[in-house]
Amino acid sequence: MENKKQSFVTIEWRDQAVVMIDQRLLPHQEKYNIYREVPEVAEAIKTMVIRGAPAIGVAAGFGVALGAHNARGDAAAVVEQTKQACDLLAAARPTAVNLFWAIERMRARLAQVATAPVQQIKEALLAEAQTICDEDLGLCHRIGEQALDLIPQSATLLTHCNAGGLATAGHGTALGVVRSAVQAGKRIKVIADETRPFLQGARLTAWELARDGIDVTVIADVAAASLIAGGKIDLVVVGTDRVAANGDVANKIGTYSVALAARAHNVPFYVAAPWSTIDLNTATGAAIPIEDRPAEEVSHVLGQRIIPEGVPVLNPAFDITPAELVTALITDRGVVRAPYIEGIKALAG
Ligand code: MRU
Q1: Mean pLDDT, all residues of the chain
Q2: What residue spans define the domains of the chain?
């Protein structure tokens, strides 16, 4: 199969800095921000310049590498400053386990080289971050390949949020499934939930698929259940921020409603994720921390308040879809079906 490259770069290390496309400005403006300080990278994750679980992990990896790169003094001082960078980045967002997974991996590499000459420590950490980034791209392609047998030759696929090239080092997880299917010659129409309140579906999924010539139509979130009920959707594929050991799935708020509608109408509900998103240390979805985002994301649209002053707002950014609603998990290591505890354990090796 042709391994076509997506037409934009989500994140990279360039000229001794971390460079990211500013996802807050898409689709109107394609601007690449250059970050030379660790707190800027942490802030970029927090404010969703970069978002999506695997991309957050890649950003954290480069953020730690930047911490080492900027550190001054002897090896012990560089190790100490790099650990501080790890702590700062780990506090950026709570739900996506890839953030903690990447930081742990960087910490482990740091421990291996802690007594090496300073330059060697810095180079080792940058190499590790680059490896996390490169591997993520490869994992997304493998997820797409694993899914090929599940995707009909011609299908209308509903997705929620953005689990695309913008949410990963490239290709995407849910949208990687789409891209791989299209590259394999399948006729795929994507229906993208707009994904209130941050509009990742309307702004980001629509932008990256349209840009790569993939058929995409945006709907209001509230339209999804009736399209599913009306037989307009053949399958649902979403990404995830964390999968618990029992197969419960945390993903963008609204995913649970889509899963319920899919189950009610016998439409397959697939979750695509790299292995780095499976959290064997979290037993069930109930233990996954759900991020509360700023009220303004709900109370304001395009900078304009739409809710009366003084009325409180709730803005949980993620919800939990119980494993029983998931038809299959599509991972780079293989496709897992219920019973998930056993299936996940088997793939964990
Ligand atoms: O708040 P976000 O935009 O970071 O949420 C992203 C999602 O919910 C994605 O579906 C998930 O991270 C998987 S991305 C491959």
Answers
A1: 97
A2: 11-141, 147-348
Residue for token pair 């913008």: 166
Give the CA dihedral 243, 244, 246, 252, nearest 10 degrees: -50
Does pLDDT of 348 surpass 80? yes
Average pLDDT over residues 31-57: 98
94 ligand 1 Cβ < 6 A: no
Name the pLDDT band for 349 (thresholds 50, 70, 90).
Answer: confident
Tell me which DSSP letter residue 150 carries.
Answer: G
Contact 169, 133 (CB under 8 A): yes
For the Cβ of 122 lying below 6 angstroms from any atom of ligand 1, the answer is: no
Is residue 53 in contact with ligand 1, taking CB distance under 6 Å? yes
Pocket test for ligand 1, best of 162, 177, 179, 194 (most atoms within 8 A of CB): 162
What do you get for the CA distance between the two ends of the chain, in Å? 28
- Give the CA distances from residue 105 to residues 66, 118, 129, 271, in Å, rounded to whole numbers and listed in that order: 15, 19, 9, 24
**Percent of the chain's residues with pLDDT above 70:** 99
Q: Is the dihedral of CA 289, 292, 293, 297 positive or negative?
A: positive
Distances (CA, A) of 63 to 31, 89, 90, 126, 310: 19, 7, 10, 9, 38
> Per-residue confidence at 4, pLDDT binned at 50, 70, 90?
low
d(CA 84, CA 237): 37
Residue 2 binned pLDDT confidence (cut-offs 50, 70, 90): very low
CATH class of 11-141: mainly alpha
Spell out where 26-152 has E strands.
32-35
Ligand 1 atom at shortest distance from the alpha carbon of 238? 10
CA of 250 to the centre of ligand 1 (A): 9
Asked if pLDDT for residue 1 goes beyond 90, the answer is no
The CATH homologous superfamily for domain 147-348 is: Translation initiation factor eif-2b; domain 2 (3.40.50.10470)
Statement: residue 314 has pLDDT above 50: yes
pTM: 0.97
